[in-house]
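Notes to self after the Tuesday call (sharing in case useful).
The group wants a holo model before anyone commits to mutagenesis around the pocket. I volunteered. Ligand is NAX. Logging inputs and output together so the record is complete.
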Amino acid sequence: MTRPLTVTVTGAAGQIGYALLFRIASGQMFGHDTPVRLRLLEIPQAVRAAEGTAMELEDCAFPLLADVEVTDDVDVAFEDANVAMLVGARPRGAGMERADLLQANGGIFGPQGAAIAANAASDARVVVVGNPANTNALIAASHAEGVPAERFTALTRLDHNRAVAQLANETDATVGSVSGITIWGNHSATQYPDLSHATVGDRPARELVEESWVRDEFIPRVAKRGAEIIEVRGASSAASAANAAIDHVRDWVLGTPGDAWTSAAVVSDGSYGVPEGLISSFPVTSNGGDWKIVPDLDIDAFSRERIDASVAELVAERDAVRELGLL
Ligand code: NAX
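Result:
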């Protein structure tokens, strides 16, 4: 057995938290040799519910679960954290303007970024799930003095997994035979799910599907899948979001297999015309510790337009939070 890793989950009493914690504690994130210590952060009103979840975690008698702590104190929550999964966020309330939403989330993610810098382990890696995820990650990173910006990421793996599943369905193939999918840009309806480099088995996906299907069904369906789930399930994606967050952290920490890439929102180094410093989704690989943007992919005119549109939304969000003094 290796030494325990400390994982902080914010919004632990929420529905994603409930779908996430048991899987982390059972070893599905770091493998079955690595014990975990869980730190659950909640707002004061939800601490009791999180304590209930902690009781259930105890009742599972997971051999890998070394410790669980529940708190509403950010400094306690991020103490020695190797991985921070920032799930809790302020949802858009009725009549809430965009600036109010950004302001409310700035009030959460700024202090959390600072608390990570002050308390987390020196190798801390952060994934933001709470929306608007890319911009919340940017805010957290900008308050985490001394922590490399590359350690702050936002989740677009759920969009990626949805795209893989849609392409597999359409081509009557298994999900395991699909590779080379990319989500570009923002985790929002402007995201660009791109299958122009994808393969199904050993065949290019573009040879197997109609262009009209890509434009009129695949792209909008993936981008709006969250809304479709809400309509059908009566609640937003939870288990699939938790699953994607686990995929993201596992691939980041343990590495992506072979030469396969996945998608994650990471800090831009200027690649593919995305302004440096924005946290935008790219095709990425990990060597087991650091994400690397897949270089030199050909971007056709259609893809260029879609990437630019989503990046423009990210730029507008960044400018709005800058104006609000949140960066
Ligand atoms: P819930 O409303 O079920 O849970 C959120 C929890 O966060 C609540 O228990 C709340 O008390 C807590 N919380 C709020 N402010 C907090 C703070 N300052 N510190 C600690 N905890 C805090 O939402 P849930 O369905 O779990 O979704 C959580 C977030 O994930 C939302 O922002 C949602 O929009 C976002 N999503 C992101 C996805 C992605 O792919 N990036 C997909 C799924 C999901 O929509």
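Two things stood out.
Residues 271 and 295 are 8 Å apart (CA to CA).
The longest strand covers residues 279-286.
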